[in-house]
């Protein structure tokens, strides 16, 4: 069992990775049979690139694991018995009881469910996996030890204990088996009155349709919950007769046993009467909540309620939506209506959201529920049945698809295809909108209408079909260049002409796509720039970045300084053709480089204060690589400060006088900007620059005021670290010219003297 948990949780690491392979639907639904029992899941298994994936949660719940989720760190912790597994989403390393395990099989996040590879989970445990492609069945068998016969429980009783109108009203108690050493756990099964049950059919019930009681040494009392279902998969509700059974599930190969049935029971809710059918209709083409009309009949007796709440639930989530979940929905994610004494019929608003917090939009399947809110006790709220499923449509485009077609690492990698609207009479153009997925949930028609023309690709209405590859300067709706490693969804806005300018129509979103460079060349990361000196040229600009993870095909990096007034048109093609750049080698894992005085921007102009720049880094291929170079994203904008110049001293030398170091130097050429000179003795192996000089304590240097002549100053008796200057240690001497009150810059540091020791 422990090994099973280790491998199952190891598979969890493959939760939504940056690179998602498309799922191919099988000709038949895929079934997974574990030791003769079909694994019941709320999402069917799928075939992805020749591997069968199964929903992760179905496996965990089948084995009753405790799961904790840390949203901040994106970490899952799963525990059972003496095994604890911890893993971080997106990492290929998991820990099992604090020991690391390497994982090599990715999973997928498909339609809100995390799917893991069945064969990986099973074979990692030493189990045998069989695959019948014709029947689309995966069979998993587990060797089990030979055991005895578990005994059935007795005294099964079902009680009506509350008035929620769901499984929380039902409590089942029973006397434990005589010998629990043979018992792994108990399963509580609820059947509708009139349904017969035997041991074989009881063991075949899926894990979603029974409740588990663990062996504790005491007689169990099981309070069911709002999501509890009958063995047929139906939610428990009022005015339906039920009978309870208990399966004693044997350990290992110990046989299981079925109890006798409880006495029949019919749940009765004595609070607010039930709501009737809710109707939902698509009535407009705004592409948001205004398209959704909801109607329902008020309760005949509204004396116990204060209001109604309308919930729009994604159809994919509706099978688990119940009263408990309805009561927990945030007020921003439902529409509240005060009781009016009349039946309700209304359209929702443009800002209406579904219960997940996403704006209501076209192309998504929904079901609608209504909650009658009890004015005195939320536990007595009553939830309606779901409306029929509804997917909002509009008069815009259809069959929107997006694919990764090249390896330029920019918009040229994105191909967008769609069918035009059937009636283009009132349409002036289509706008292709690329939206970062982390911004997707809040993207609406209003957002689409306000996107700048620089941040979408316009397509005319000629023809009935568009197949468009974007260009190198294409940007997402936030204004960032499109590039690898970012997940996007694509929309198409059908923009109205002058006859219909107020009725733009936004398509549903495409599937998510993350551009991948399959050729092997990568961009740098963590690019940053800073203003570090006051020379009034390239020496003021420091550029730092992390190198590409794999530099096998990289010759060098090029640092490109781009004036902001040229930024919007800067592309990979411009970078490849730029003749003005600073070269950085591939040695080490990162680069931290101050440019030189002769450095120029990409237009050939010397770098200087007062100009706003962005910096890019081009990853340049070597001769053995046939693909394209890769351009980084631009750095944050930086304008070098225009400061009064401070000229460093020159000709720094040292001498000795009675055992003390004496420093001689030629004065600064611009002493009018200087308040003092500071003399530093620095261990020769220590890196020392202007920033370090300005941070030295005053007791660890000697200073002198300018006097119009070259100076000779006795140095302090300690080095810049505060350590005494001693024999046997090699030193260098520096002099800092410090700006006076009229200057803005901090100072200019001299070159070092020759290395010496006393």
Automatic annotation (TrEMBL):
Keywords: Signal. Residues 34-140 form the Copper amine oxidase-like N-terminal domain. The lineage of its organism: Bacteria, Bacillati, Bacillota, Bacilli, Bacillales. It comes from Paenibacillus rhizoplanae. Residues 1-25 form the signal peptide. Coiled coil: none annotated. The keyword Signal applies. This is Stalk domain-containing protein. InterPro entries: Cu_amine_oxidase-like_N, Mao_N_sf.
């Amino acid at each position: 069992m422990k090994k099973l948990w280790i491998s199952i949780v190891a598979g969890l690491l493959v939760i939504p990775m940056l690179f998602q392979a498309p799922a191919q639907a099988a000709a038949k639904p895929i079934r997974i049979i574990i030791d003769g029992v079909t694994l019941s899941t709320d999402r069917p298994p799928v075939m992805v690139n020749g591997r069968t994936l199964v929903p992760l949660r179905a496996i965990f719940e089948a084995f009753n694991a405790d799961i904790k989720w840390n949203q901040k760190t994106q970490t899952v912790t799963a525990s059972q018995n003496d095994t604890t597994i911890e893993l971080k989403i997106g990492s290929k390393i998991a820990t099992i009881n604090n020991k690391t395990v390497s994982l090599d099989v990715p999973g997928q996040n498909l339609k809100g469910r995390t799917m893991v590879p069945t064969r990986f989970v099973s074979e990692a445990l030493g189990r045998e996996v069989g695959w019948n492609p014709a029947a689309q069945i995966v069979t998993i068998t587990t060797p089990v030890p030979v055991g005895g016969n578990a005994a059935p429980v007795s005294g099964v009783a079902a009680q009506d204990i509350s008035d929620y109108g769901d499984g929380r009203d039902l409590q089942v108690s029973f006397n434990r088996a005589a010998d629990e050493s043979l018992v792994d756990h108990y399963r509580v099964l609820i059947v509708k009155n009139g349904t017969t049950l035997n041991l074989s059919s009881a063991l075949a019930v899926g894990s979603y349709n029974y409740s588990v009681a663990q062996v504790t040494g005491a007689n169990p009392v099981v309070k069911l919950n709002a999501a509890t279902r009958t063995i047929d998969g139906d939610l428990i509700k009022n005015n339906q007769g039920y009978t309870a059974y208990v399966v004693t599930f044997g350990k290992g190969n110990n046989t299981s046993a079925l109890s006798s049935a409880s006495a029949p029971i019919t749940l009765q809710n004595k609070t607010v009467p039930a709501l009737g059918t809710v109707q939902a209709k698509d009535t407009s083409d705004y592409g948001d909540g205004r398209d959704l009309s909801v109607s329902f009949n008020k309760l005949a007796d509204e004396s116990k309620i204060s209001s109604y709440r309308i919930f729009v639930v994604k159809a994919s989530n509706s099978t688990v939506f119940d009263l408990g979940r309805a009561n927990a929905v945030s007020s921003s994610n439902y529409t509240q209506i005060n009781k009016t004494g009349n039946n309700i019929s209304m359209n929702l608003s443009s800002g209406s959201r579904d219960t997940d917090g996403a704006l209501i939009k076209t192309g998504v399947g929904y079901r609608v529920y209504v909650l009658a809110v009890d004015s005195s006790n939320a536990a007595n709220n009553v939830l309606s049945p779901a409306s029929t499923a509804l997917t909002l449509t509009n008069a815009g485009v259809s069959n929107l698809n997006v694919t990764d077609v090249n390896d330029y690492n920019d918009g040229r990698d994105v191909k967008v295809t769609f069918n035009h609207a059937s009636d283009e009479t009132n349409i002036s153009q289509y706008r292709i909108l690329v939206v970062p997925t982390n911004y997707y949930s809040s993207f609406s028609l209003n957002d689409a209408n306000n996107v700048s023309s620089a941040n979408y690709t316009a397509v005319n209405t000629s023809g009935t079909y568009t197949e468009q590859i974007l260009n190198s300067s294409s940007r997402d709706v936030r204004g960032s260049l499109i590039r690898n490693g970012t997940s996007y969804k694509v929309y198409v806005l059908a923009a109205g002409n002058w006859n219909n300018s107020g009725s733009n129509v936004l398509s549903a979103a495409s599937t998510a796509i993350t551009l991948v460079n399959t050729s092997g060349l990568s961009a740098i990361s963590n690019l940053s720039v800073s203003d570090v000196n006051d020379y009034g040229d390239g020496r003021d600009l420091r550029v730092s970045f992390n190198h590409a993870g794999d530099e096998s095909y990289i010759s060098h990096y090029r640092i490109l300084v781009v004036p902001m007034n040229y930024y919007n048109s800067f592309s990979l093609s411009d970078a490849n053709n730029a003749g003005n750049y600073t070269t950085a080698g591939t040695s080490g894992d990162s680069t931290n480089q101050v440019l030189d005085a002769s450095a120029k921007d990409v237009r050939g102009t010397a770098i200087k204060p007062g100009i706003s720049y962005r910096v890019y880094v081009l990853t340049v291929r070597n001769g053995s690589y046939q693909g394209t170079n890769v351009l980084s994203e631009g750095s944050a904008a930086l304008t070098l400060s225009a400061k009064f110049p401070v000229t460093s001293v020159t000709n720094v030398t040292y001498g000795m006088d009675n055992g003390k170091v004496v420093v001689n130097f030629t004065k600064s050429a611009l002493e009018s900007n200087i308040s003092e000179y500071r003399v530093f003795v620095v261990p020769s192996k220590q890196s020392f620059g202007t920033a370090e000089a300005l941070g030295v304590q005053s007791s660890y240097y000697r200073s002198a005021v300018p006097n119009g002549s070259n100076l000779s100053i006795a140095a302090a008796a300690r080095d810049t670290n505060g350590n005494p200057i001693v024999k046997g240690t090699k030193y260098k001497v520096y002099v800092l010219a410090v700006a006076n009150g009229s200057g803005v810059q901090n100072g200019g540091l001299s070159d070092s003297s020759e290395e010496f020791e006393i």
